[in-house]
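Ligand: zinc ion. Inputs:
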Amino acid sequence: MAVHTIVIDANYQVLVKSGNKPTVFHDSSLTQAVDAQLLHRLHLGAPGGDLTVVQLDADLSSALPGFELASLRSLLVPLEESAFQWLGRGIQLCRWQTEHRFCGKCGSPTEPSATDEALVCPSCELSFYPKISPCVIGLIENGDHCLLARGARHPEAMFSTIAGFIEAGENAEQAFAREVQEEVGVVVEDITYLYSQPWPFPGQLMLGFTANFAGGDISVDGEEILEAHWYRYDQLPLIPPDSTISGRIIRDFVRRKQFATP
Ligand SMILES: [Zn+2]
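Predicted complex:
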């Protein structure tokens, strides 16, 4: 059975073998020669092989010639979806272990659970699971048009769907309707769930929706959202890549409209 290792540094930068196609799964013997403090070594449980993640406190790029460090975000497009998901899982688990070393209730050092993927407080028995934050993301449709917005964090000229965190006590549909109202000022109805995507920046789970426009005029705050417009399905601006759930939702809308057009 193949044994592979994902290697990250203390700042969650990923060790990548240089070449045409980036490689993030390395032979498990790779880091034996690196003189470094081991921060975490965790089994990820990948099917068809034994995959671990190793986090080292070392200057990895100079210790390992032929390799370089890359941010997780820069690997979203070049890596295949499953490889990116394992990498995201590895980084999320290392971050979780680092950030839950002590119980938030009583301050005692936590310990790995013997039965669950959890850190447990031996003093008050509180459990801490990897932190996953549910978010909603979706497209507002109005016939042949969809509403796309340019956020302050988006690269220049890229227009995308509306997204935001689910708040305590909300269901996902309520969260999406609220985010739409807050970000672009319109009202939606017929909110329909599509599919989801883990989004490890640092630990979101994106729940994808479509919804129909029900009224209101576009109004943006000019800070989080810079501009938003209605676009016909065959006259779209630059949209996110297919590797993102927003890109997939928009392209699915386009395909539906193309199929429906005689
Ligand atoms: Zn405790």
